[in-house]
Amino acid sequence: MSEKHVYSFGKDHAGNDVTEVAGASVEEAKWIVGGKGANLAEMSKIGLPVPPGFSITCQTCVAYSNNGNVWPEGVTDEIDAAMATLEERMGKKLGDAEDPLLVSVRSGAPFSMPGMMDTVLNLGLNDESVQGLIKQTGNERFAWDSYRRFVQMFSGVVMGVSGQLFEDAIAAKKAEKGVKLDTELDANDLRDLVTWFKGIFAANVDVKEHPEVSKNGYAVFPSDPYLQLRLAEQAVFGSWMNDRAILYRKQNKIPDELGTAVNVQVMVFGNKGETSATGVAFTRNPADGTNERYGDFLINAQGEDVVAGIRNTEPIAD
Question: What's the pTM?
Answer without folding.
Answer: 0.93
